[in-house]
Amino acid sequence: xxxxxxxxxxxxxxxxxxxxxxxxxxxxxxxxxxxxxxxxxxxxxxxxxxxxxxxxxxxxxxxxxxxxxxxxxxxxxxxxxxxxxxxxxxxxxxxxxxxxxxxxxxxxxxxxxxxxxxxxxxxxxxxxxxxxxxxxxxxxxxxxxxxxxxxxxxxxxxxxxxxxxxxxxxxxxxxxxxxxxxxxxxxxxxxxxxxxxxxxxxxxxxxxxxxxxxxxxxxxxxxxxxxxxxxxxxxxxxxxxxxxxxxxxxxxxxxxxxxxxxxxxxxxxxx
Length: 271
Fold this sequence. Notes:
- It is a single chain.
- By secondary structure, the chain is an alpha/beta fold.
- The protein is 45% helix and 15% strand.
- The chain contains twelve helices and seven strands.
- It has a seven-stranded mixed β-sheet, sandwiched between helices.
- Helix 2 (62-75) packs across helix 3.
- It is globular and about 50 Å long.
């Protein structure tokens, strides 16, 4: 595999769904979540640059990551897909929507946001960089993962928490620091939501500490066509915290964008 292509899994058949994981995660995030979808869709999961089995990039900006996603999907002859991005994967997905809109027939922001970091959030990322430089990745992951889950779910989701901690600890400091800086410096992409003819689906946890409910409410009405699913008693990790409902909601959105429906929609909107 060429170094500028991302590591991937490709299974199932039908319309293509592409899944992007978030910060300090890997394509293993989606392993169990996508299994029931394989009879209806072609599923592609990608390791973003520097994560999982993908090689290190020359830069970690959302635009650079989007270009690698596009190049990898082109190598797999993917002409159209529904792109699902969790957290930082959603930031990359929005960059794909801006740079390569012809690739998408749908977009899902899975606990993600088009808003740029607030000054408070930028300061928090800077402090995280300092913490990792001082204490290392393992110590960071021991404090980072569990709070992403709603407090009421942390006992039942302990296996998932441990899995995500292990994935994070296997991620290089170079990638973690590069992504923290890239997320801090990413631009606001609410204009993409306002102008895209692509249907957008927002998956939101009511107890999400990373993408507060208020942030989703600021954005979910911006696209011309959008759906929003608010999950009670869910934080930032709905694929683990309430697997059945998040999968069912995504499936419902994907099924409304069947090739026939998508073709009619693209013809109407000329994209």
